[in-house]
Amino acid sequence: SDVYKRQSLFNMKQYFMRVFALLFLLVPVACTEDAENISSDLNRSGIKIRTAAFGAQGTITELPAEKKISNLNAYLFSGETLVRSFQDLVVGSDNICRIDTDQETGKLYFLANTDTDTRSQIYEQMPEDEFLRLTAQNQTTGNAPQVMSGMLNLASPSGDGTVHLQRGIARIDLEIVSKSVEVNEVTVTEVCQAGYLFPQEGVLSVSEARRENLVRTFRTAQTDDLPGLFYLYEQKNSDLVVLVKATVNGCLLYTSPSPR
């Protein structure tokens, strides 16, 4: 199945997995709206940074960890070659990032929340097509990090100086719609532990990525909704299955929801 597709707020596909009284949402991302204006700063450009928020059925839900930008870097390409890098950028409280690009043309790509290993793949004069195939790799089995990417065309006369950072991951939420259900454990099988940083032609998996099971076990049975149960890289994966260990009306059940 295709896990997540980078789409706009008005063109979202939603994936559901249902079993008995359990509802799992595999949620695509949508861009949040921000009404603040771009301010000027003498000789420095002000670029508005907007981040995508997870949403389902028209409702935007964002957890505190999803809002954090731990690191932000920008890469300027001209003539399909990397010509300049901007490291350790700071986004102000007004969501403005100051970058000296007034005399520059070309495409300015942004990467947020990437690790050192990912950034070390980027080198001087790197071809643009190679840059756009960059991947993030989990060093240990677990959730995908909150990586984001975006692009601003400095040569576009219609540009408003805003870059929309999109997420390269999907979020799985647990929603329990019956008081008779207690969830003990949720497993997602064969999850790719790597993903592309930028959108590709269709939903693709990183071919050499290892696959692992993600397991969430609750010491005390879960009876309430839980957003952010898992975070998965974008991937095309027919082996992806969600397994649930739950108690329904006092009876222990092992279930495998099917997508609809």
Would you mind describing this structure in some detail?
This protein is mostly beta strands. The chain is 5% helix and 49% strand. The chain contains three helices and 22 strands. It has helices at 64-67, 116-119, 128-131, and strands at 2-3, 15-19, 22-27, 29-31, 45-56, 59-60, 72-78, 81-86, 96-99, 107-112, 135-137, 148-153, 162-167, 169-176, 181-192, 194-196, 211-222, 226-233, 235-236, 241-248, 251-255, 258-259. Strands 4, 5, 6, 7, 8, 9, 10, 12 and 13 form a nine-stranded mixed beta sheet that branches. The protein has a five-stranded antiparallel beta sheet with strand order 18-14-3-2-22, with no helix packed on it. Strand 12 and strand 13 form a beta hairpin.
Short structural summary:
With 260 residues, the protein is mainly beta. It has helices at 64-67, 116-119, 128-131, and strands spanning 2-3, 15-19, 22-27, 29-31, 45-56, 59-60, 72-78, 81-86, 96-99, 107-112, 135-137, 148-153, 162-167, 169-176, 181-192, 194-196, 211-222, 226-233, 235-236, 241-248, 251-255, 258-259.
